[in-house]
Write a structure and sequence with these properties.
- By secondary structure, this protein is of the alpha+beta class.
- It has two helices and five strands, in the order βαββαββ.
- Strands 4-1-3-2-5 form a five-stranded mixed beta sheet.
- Helix 1 packs antiparallel against helix 2.
Length: 97
């Protein structure tokens, strides 16, 4: 994970497994808000869940660890993570259509 001078980092994630229809997006949003991470989450047509987030490096690290577990009822098989440039324009954490 790359950290900018501000102490913030940004990550793009794709979560695979049984992650749709089990409250995964709401879980992700709740975890992000709890940790002070900004960005969005959405379901993808292939059954995965896509996440874009940024925030303090330690918070983003904890957040991505929680993506690997998911809520009760979910089964996370794989999380593909990539570090991306911090955009700085997210104001909260939203569930996208």
């Amino acid at each position: 994970m790359s950290v900018e001078k501000t102490g913030n980092t940004a990550v793009h994630a794709r979560v695979y497994g049984r992650v749709q229809g089990v409250g995964f997006r709401f879980f992700v949003q709740a975890q992000a808000r709890r940790l002070g991470v900004r960005g969005w989450v959405r379901n993808e047509y292939d059954g995965s869940v896509e996440v874009a987030c940024e925030g303090p490096a330690d918070s983003v690290k904890r957040f991505t660890e929680r993506l690997r577990k998911g809520p009760a009822g979910a089964r996370v098989d794989h999380v593909a993570l990539s570090t991306v440039p911090v955009q700085g324009f997210y104001r909260g954490f939203t569930i996208e259509p």
